[in-house]
């Protein structure tokens, strides 16, 4: 081991700042002085070279002897820390010392940088390192804590994202299961509804089951109900016959007015609605009683079909023609009135004569044949009235409610008219085919004159 003479410089206390220590370690690492320590014959020359390099970089306060003792203390602290901490060094500048002491020495020594030349009139040039940092144990701990916090934050973010993805997958799977169950329930409900609707259209009775009653009580109730039905039908049919007779005359008068408007009174200045509107309003709205008669079983008409037929006509009269000026001049109005009047004359005449069991075969044939032409004609006229009326409703926003208002409610009469028009698409084929089924049932059997049907 080489020893340095204790000169005047050694009398100073060997206190190193963190910046000076970092500069020493950087010089040893950059210039591969560990290789010189292993191969040099005079170790004092190596420390002298380190001193010269530090002075050239602006750290001229340390001589070779102080550098020797500082390097010795750094190595001792590093190895003692590794021994005490089971091979892991925990001391100041542990990372830098590990990189120098534990890294194999390079066989090729890096050349020293040439000395920087001084310029006249300027201070001596000093080599300073960029971003020099004073490293202490506290700074190392803070750096490690920051690194660990960053790693933990990234890990937490990754786990959080994984948890969100897992919850989203669970939500999508549950939503898919609920959607499948809802679609299955809707299909079952739709099938059940269509089955019952077809039974009603076909005139088949619905099966109703009474639970909790004794057999004797059920028999007594059935007998009582049958007697009550017979009494009601016997009493009210006579009244209905008078009503039907008057209704036939009313519709005949409406048909006469329609024909007279285009023949006898052809040159009149009045519109068709002004000519016969009062008659249409009276007799068409009076048809609402048919719904009551059908549901109370006063007449054997199908209540569902009767409701659709009557309400569609009342809607045309009250909600379209009476409500809008464009509906009154629609080309569909004469078509609808012609189809309605002819149909009702034949139908009510059939009902009236059927009460006395005197329906001629020609009337039966007309009852179940003329609908083939009159039904599409009437529907076409009704739809034309709707179409002519919607332009006025769209321009004036008639009977529509817009936001904001007190009740926080909105309603568009224009959309309502279009919704009613669209209902004709599924309902018209059902009713039309039902009439064909009735025609086959009545005209194809031998007891046509004895049957009562709608």
TrEMBL record:
GO terms for cellular component: endoplasmic reticulum membrane. One of its GO terms (molecular function) is very-long-chain (3R)-3-hydroxyacyl-CoA dehydratase activity. It is a multi-pass membrane protein. Keywords: Endoplasmic reticulum, Fatty acid biosynthesis, Fatty acid metabolism, Lipid biosynthesis, Lipid metabolism, Lyase, Membrane, Transmembrane, Transmembrane helix. Pathway: Lipid metabolism; fatty acid biosynthesis. It comes from the Eukaryota. The keyword Cell membrane does not apply. It catalyses: a very-long-chain (3R)-3-hydroxyacyl-CoA = a very-long-chain (2E)-enoyl-CoA + H2O. Pfam families: Myb_DNA-bind_4 (PF13837), PTPLA (PF04387). InterPro entries: Myb_DNA-bind_4 (IPR044822), Tyr_Pase-like_PTPLA (IPR007482). Gene3D superfamilies: Homeodomain-like (1.10.10.60). One of its GO terms (biological process) is sphingolipid biosynthetic process. Catalyzes the third of the four reactions of the long-chain fatty acids elongation cycle. This endoplasmic reticulum-bound enzymatic process, allows the addition of two carbons to the chain of long- and very long-chain fatty acids/VLCFAs per cycle. This enzyme catalyzes the dehydration of the 3-hydroxyacyl-CoA intermediate into trans-2,3-enoyl-CoA, within each cycle of fatty acid elongation. Thereby, it participates to the production of VLCFAs of different chain lengths that are involved in multiple biological processes as precursors of membrane lipids and lipid mediators. PANTHER family: VERY-LONG-CHAIN (3R)-3-HYDROXYACYL-COA DEHYDRATASE (PTHR11035:SF3). This is Very-long-chain (3R)-3-hydroxyacyl-CoA dehydratase. It comes from Anopheles dirus. The lineage of its organism: Eukaryota, Metazoa, Ecdysozoa, Arthropoda, Hexapoda.
């Amino acid at each position: 081991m080489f020893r340095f003479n204790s000169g005047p410089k050694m009398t100073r206390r060997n206190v190193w700042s963190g910046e000076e220590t970092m500069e020493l370690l950087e010089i040893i690492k950059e210039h591969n002085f560990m290789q010189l320590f292993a191969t040099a014959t005079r170790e004092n020359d190596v420390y002298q070279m380190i001193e010269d390099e530090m002075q050239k970089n602006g750290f001229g306060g340390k001589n070779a002897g102080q550098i020797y003792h500082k390097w010795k203390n750094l190595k001792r602290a590093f190895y003692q820390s590794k021994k005490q901490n089971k091979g892991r060094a925990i001391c100041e500048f542990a990372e830098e010392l590990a990189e120098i002491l534990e890294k194999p020495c390079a066989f090729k020594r890096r050349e020293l940088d040439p000395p920087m030349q001084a310029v006249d009139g300027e201070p001596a040039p000093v080599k300073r390192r960029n971003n020099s940092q004073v490293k202490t144990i506290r700074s190392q701990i803070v750096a490690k804590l920051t690194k660990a916090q960053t790693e933990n934050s990234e890990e937490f973010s990754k786990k959080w994202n994984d948890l969100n993805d897992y919850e989203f997958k669970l939500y999508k799977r549950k939503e898919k299961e609920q959607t499948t169950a809802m679609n299955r329930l809707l299909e079952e409900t739709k099938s059940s509804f269509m089955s019952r609707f077809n039974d009603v259209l076909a005139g088949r009775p619905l099966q109703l089951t009474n639970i909790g009653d004794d057999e004797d009580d059920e028999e007594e109730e059935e007998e009582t109900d049958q007697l009550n039905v017979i009494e009601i039908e016997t009493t009210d049919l006579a009244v209905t016959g008078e009503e039907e007779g008057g209704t036939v005359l009313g519709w005949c008068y409406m048909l006469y007015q329609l024909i007279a408007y285009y023949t006898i009174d052809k040159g009149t200045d009045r519109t068709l609605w002004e000519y016969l509107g009062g008659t249409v309003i009276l007799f068409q709205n009076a048809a609402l009683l048919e719904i009551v008669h059908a549901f109370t079983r006063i007449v054997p008409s199908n209540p569902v079909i009767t409701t659709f037929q009557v309400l569609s006509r009342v809607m045309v009269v009250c909600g379209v023609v009476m409500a809008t000026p464009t509906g009154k001049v629609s080309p569909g109005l004469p078509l609808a009135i012609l189809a309605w009047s002819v149909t009702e004359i034949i139908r009510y005449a059939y009902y009236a004569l059927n009460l006395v069991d005197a329906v001629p075969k020609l009337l039966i044939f007309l009852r179940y044949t003329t609908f083939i032409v009159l039904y599409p004609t009437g529907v076409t006229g009704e739809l034309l009235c709707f179409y002519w009326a919607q332009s006025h409703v769209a321009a004036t926003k008639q009977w529509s409610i817009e936001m904001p208002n007190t009740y926080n409610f909105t309603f568009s009469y224009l959309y309502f008219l279009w919704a009613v028009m669209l209902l004709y698409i599924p309902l018209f084929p059902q009713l039309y085919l039902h009439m064909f089924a009735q025609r086959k049932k009545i005209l194809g059997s031998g007891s046509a004159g004895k049957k009562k049907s709608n």
